[in-house]
């Protein structure tokens, strides 16, 4: 099925490519971490405001959250963007050596500078298309803070900012091109368990002390035992964020452990979390300490939508292969030379899954994956995303496009280094085109919107959004 909007939107985005890559490169340089994306958010707000969008900023207690809106009436179609960087990942652009030159604390290791910008580009180009063709409807860009380690979107969902949306569309930069289907991303809670004991001289008066560190250790042992009795797909990982000091002769009065708890469904995570709260109480009882439990983030699993997945697939097929120059292939090969041995192993596994026995070697030799991976392949799953929370209240479609050398790990300095390359730019502009075209179709095809809504209902099958964030929890850096 050929659509004439594809040509128009492609032309608009190509004509403004310099503006968009300017935005993403600038945000790459700001490298602001969760909830501190002041400059990045302002840059996007100013850009969209100059393009005639109205802006509402500072939403759900998140200073850097905003909605840019154009048009009126139904349908309301939301494009989601992010702009937060990751801690300790600053890296010189294009350098295949670890090099912190121009030192900043943080770096865009998950490509969120591209993520937000492609969605900005999609709404910008779509607005032009809607104006030129007198198309009705409400077009929105959601500037969503703190995807990493805080789940910023969950607060926007909890506080009702998606209540009147009909459809949400977004993407994520990656090392391949693929529709991102629900079912492969895990729901995730983060919670701190802080134990309070009594300090004393460990040799002189041990009977007067109650060790908070003992409680942390016992809790972790309890969690290890729990692992035997949970579903295979669940994951629990912890970090001792306060061991209670460095002196072995002082009984630690306070100690803390942070857990991430993941499972395919948010309802399953909640059950594991409740069991871990009991384990914590048990550890406190054993050690004569007390425990304070604070859940700080919740990410829900991604709810699939076949109608939107098919629509995105059709458009992805139109814009992929992306096409790379010899220079770009050589650039990617350079980065393939510096991925870790473990990532090389991962790449082999990936090639085997994608290519089977016959094509495995051929795929392994590709510096860039310029093909479309089957949307039903589980590749690209396993992590968690706060898009999941949006997908429980609005039919949501998502896509990955290739922005990095094959085998590059996300959240690595190698990903930061490639973030301003023409490969990253091409992936971003491709994502913008795919998303804008999906939007153009939806604005003109009310039956398709209804079909996506029917899918959404069927997929939830009566389940309601469990709203995993505590009601009084405020967005914060923890
Ligand atoms: Zn990310």
Q: Please, could you describe this protein's structure?
A:
There is one protein chain. The protein has a 7-stranded mixed beta sheet with strand order 1-2-6-3-7-13-8, with helices on both faces. Strands 10-11-9-12 form a 4-stranded antiparallel beta sheet. The longest helix is centred in the last third of the chain and has 24 residues, at 341-364. It has 2 domains: 4-185 and 301-460, 3-Layer(aba) Sandwich (Aminopeptidase), CATH 3.40.630.10; 187-299, Alpha-Beta Plaits (2-Layer Sandwich), CATH 3.30.70. It has 478 residues and is α+β, with helices and mostly antiparallel strands. The chain has helices spanning 4-15, 17-30, 38-50, 112-132, 152-158, 212-227, 266-287, 306-319, 326-336, 341-364, 387-391, 413-417, 422-444, 446-460; strands spanning 54-59, 62-72, 76-82, 86-87, 106-107, 137-144, 167-174, 178-179, 187-196, 235-242, 254-263, 290-299, 396-402. The protein has 14 helices and 13 strands. α1 (4-15) packs antiparallel against α13 and α2 runs antiparallel to α3 (38-50). It is 42% helix and 19% strand. It binds zinc ion. Zinc ion binds at residues 110, 112, 147, 172.
Question: Can you lay out the helices and strands and say which pair or pack?
Answer:
Elements (H helix, E strand, L loop, with lengths): L3 H12 L1 H14 L7 H13 L3 E6 L2 E11 L3 E7 L3 E2 L18 E2 L4 H21 L4 E8 L7 H7 L8 E8 L3 E2 L7 E10 L15 H16 L7 E8 L11 E10 L2 H22 L2 E10 L6 H14 L6 H11 L4 H24 L22 H5 L4 E7 L10 H5 L4 H23 L1 H15 L18
Parallel strand pairs: 3-6, 3-7, 7-13
Antiparallel strand pairs: 1-2, 2-6, 4-5, 8-13, 9-11, 9-12, 10-11
Helix pairs in contact: 1-4, 1-13, 2-3, 2-4, 4-13, 6-7, 8-13
């Amino acid at each position: 099925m050929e659509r004439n909007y594809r040509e128009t939107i492609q032309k608009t985005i190509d004509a403004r490519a310099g503006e968009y890559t300017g935005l993403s490169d600038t945000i790459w340089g700001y490298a602001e971490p969760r909830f501190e994306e002041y400059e990045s958010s302002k840059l996007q707000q100013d850009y969209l405001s100059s393009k005639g969008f109205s802006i509402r900023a500072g939403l759900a207690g998140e200073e850097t959250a905003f909605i840019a809106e154009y048009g009126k009436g139904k349908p309301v179609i939301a494009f989601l963007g992010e702009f937060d960087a990751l801690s300790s990942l600053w890296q010189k652009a294009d350098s295949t050596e670890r090099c912190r030159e121009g030192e900043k604390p943080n770096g865009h290791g998950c490509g969120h500078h591209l993520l937000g910008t492609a969605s900005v580009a999609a709404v910008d180009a779509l607005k032009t298309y809607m104006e030129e063709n007198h198309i009705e409807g409400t077009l929105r860009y959601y500037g969503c803070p703190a995807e990493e380690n805080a789940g910023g979107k969950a607060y926007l969902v909890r506080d009702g900012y998606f209540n009147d949306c009909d459809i949400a569309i977004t993407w994520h930069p990656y090392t391949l091109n693929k529709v991102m289907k629900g079912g492969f991303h895990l729901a995730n809670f983060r919670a701190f368990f802080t134990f309070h004991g009594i300090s004393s001289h460990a040799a002189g008066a041990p009977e007067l002390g109650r060790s908070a560190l003992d409680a942390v250790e016992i809790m972790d042992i309890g969690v290890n035992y729990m692992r035997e009795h949970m579903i295979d797909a669940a994951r629990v990982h912890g970090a001792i964020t306060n061991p209670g000091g460095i002196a072995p002769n002082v009984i630690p009065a306070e100690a803390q452990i942070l857990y991430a708890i993941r499972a395919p469904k948010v309802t399953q995570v909640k059950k594991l979390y409740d069991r871990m709260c009991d384990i914590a109480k048990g550890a406190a009882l054993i050690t004569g300490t007390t425990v304070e439990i604070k859940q700080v983030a919740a990410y829900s699993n991604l709810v699939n939508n076949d109608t939107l997945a098919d629509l995105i697939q059709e458009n992805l097929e139109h814009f992929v292969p992306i096409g790379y120059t010899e220079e770009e292939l050589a650039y990617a090969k350079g980065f393939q030379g510096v991925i870790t041995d473990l990532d090389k192993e991962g790449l082999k596994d990936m090639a085997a899954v994608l290519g089977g026995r016959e094509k495995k070697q051929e795929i392994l030799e590709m510096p860039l994956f310029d093909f479309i991976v089957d949307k039903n392949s589980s590749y690209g799953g396993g992590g968690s995303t706060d898009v999941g929370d949006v997908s429980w209240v609005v039919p949501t479609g998502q896509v990955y496009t290739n922005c990095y050398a094959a085998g590059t790990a996300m959240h690595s300095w190698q990903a930061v280094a490639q973030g301003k390359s023409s490969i990253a730019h091409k992936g971003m502009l491709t994502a913008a085109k795919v998303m804008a075209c999906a939007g153009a179709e939806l604005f003109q095809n009310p039956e398709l919107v209804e079909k996506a809504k029917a899918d959404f209902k069927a997929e939830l099958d009566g389940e309601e959004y469990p709203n995993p964030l505590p009601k009084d929890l405020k967005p914060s850096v923890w």
